[in-house]
């Protein structure tokens, strides 16, 4: 089953490029490099489910990196402390020190320039009551500009993991937390001249709507409707600021983007920006007072769909024909190995291509009489896991005058095609050089 992870916001500067390692079973080693003023390099050895070790590294090696070994699986990292500051030759702040602490009470050396243990810059700390750190994200170029962590939280009954993205904004107000749902159906927003004052969400749970609201509702309310379940919110861009003297830092704007590319914007973009993003937004949390002070979100991590296996090549007798005159069927031990059709076009005949291969069991030919036409096909197929079709094991043809015998095996999943008032004038499907994997009919009104 799934698990919930807390993704903490980055601490540090805004330079470099963003990177995100995601989550793992644990961390085995950390390597850190430095120069005279900053942390220039970091490398992690992660342990995946099943025991495989993978390495991720960032920044620039300026000298031999020092390592800190975690005694996985009996030990894990529970806290990361550090500092960030502007240093010579950097336009933005960078990480200037790092310290790692473990579940066994061990502490790494202080990485980064320090004189008698005194570090340079604004201090930060990631720690949550002994919870396990299972991944890192950050920003880097020729140094480490910013760093954030993932904490492993409780196990869930959901099949996919949930990521709780840290709430950002102001520090005032009362904490609220809507939790997780299947998705979001409607967002309603109120705003004044400089901030978001009210949020109302219609969540979907067990195909019923549940409403949650926060802040102070104003006279004018805007609405954004999501076409759930065919559409989800995948991204929320948020700004926060202290918009007027003697007011708290609050959320000043919101921009929602869905999986279909639709967007909706509320408020006035002012202040510092952050992004809440993932495949499917399933809940919000934050802080509220007479406005929305801070906002965070829950996202469900849905794996990308596995593409169906490519079996055989597509074939098709796509010409514009008036009907079918002859059918040739070849069998093998497990079903249909060969088909070929001769079509009527005006006063002449057109022979289609061979599809599949004639085996030692030979082939049989069906010839339609004058005035006779195909109206339907049916038979059995054997499903192929992950594919939208299966292996054809038998087929029978219907005409306006008769039904042929069933060619092949009388077992498997049944298929059929017949449209009242229509006649079959062509075929297409998938096949290898010796097996027919699918067959579909093309018809037109009689």
UniProtKB/TrEMBL annotation:
Keywords: Lectin. Residues 5-153, 162-298, 299-445 form the Jacalin-type lectin domain. It comes from the Eukaryota. Pfam families: Jacalin (PF01419). InterPro entries: Jacalin-like_lectin_dom, Jacalin-like_lectin_dom_plant, Jacalin-like_lectin_dom_sf. Gene3D superfamilies: Jacalin-like lectin domain. Coiled coil: none annotated. CDD domains: Jacalin (cd09612). Belongs to the jacalin lectin family. PANTHER family: JACALIN-RELATED LECTIN 3, JACALIN-TYPE LECTIN DOMAIN-CONTAINING PROTEIN. This is Jacalin-type lectin domain-containing protein. It comes from Brassica rapa subsp. trilocularis. The lineage of its organism: Eukaryota, Viridiplantae, Streptophyta, Embryophyta, Tracheophyta. The gene is A04p035540.1_BraROA.
